[in-house]
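Task 17 of the worksheet. Students: predict the tertiary structure of the chain below and write it out as structure tokens. Keep your answer in the requested format; marks are given for formatting as well as content.
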Amino acid sequence: MLKTAKLLVPLAVAILIGLAVGCRTVQPDAGHEAVLVRKPLIFGSGGVDPTPVKTGLKYVAFTTTGIDVNMQPMRIDVEFSDLMTTDGVPIDFHAVLTLQVSDSVKLVRDFGQDNVGGKPGFWVRNLDQPYRTAVRDAVKAHGMNEMAIQATAAEQVDRVVTEHLLAIIKETGVPIRVLDMSLGRANPPDAILHQRVETAAQEQRINTEKQKKLAEDQRKMAEESRAAADQAYNQKMGLNPEQYVALQAIAMQRDVCSKGGCTFLYGGNAVPLINMK
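Model answer:
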């Protein structure tokens, strides 16, 4: 028995050391999950473990791989160039989507967790092209001015494209949620922008001239009203034009001299000298 015990102890230690050496740890960061992919060498069944590692530390066999999946909201940028509007003017868009993975195991098992051109593989392979087609079809229903100026047109396009994208996600089964989507501002070609700036400048000049003419017309009406009033006054007072001019000169001299700005020279016809300062 003693000899057997001496043999079993080293064997047990060797087994424990072997198990320790043959294990690895999986510890996902906060906001991440680790999907385990088992690849046994001899015994057991392989494949994707249906239970992901969400928090804490887990020991797995050295043949098991832990695939990290970011469960936090992710941003997808999509550039559109030369989208044709209903009036035949090409416009550019910069669309931004916010997505979030809802099932890490299904994503890894059915769609993979890789990157293609700096974007998630599931997006590039399953959603990118249908999304672009939906945006192009929605923009074709509106004119350039609608998309570039009117907020209601852009909101309508956003709504149509979002509904189409949700339908594609449901059809393909990609386990993600659409948290937000925005097409941004439509940018027409530089030539169209220059024309719009020139048109705006011309419209501003026309408005300025209209306002100037309106002011001149009002001034003319005021002068005509004043002349009519003066004429009515002359007729009532029985004044001829020379008498009216003399009366106006006296009134002017009175206004100026009342402020102490005159020097009187007395003589036959006393005329005040106005001091100009």
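Marker's comment: Residues 190-237 form the longest helix (48 residues). The CA atoms of residues 49 and 117 lie 28 Å apart.
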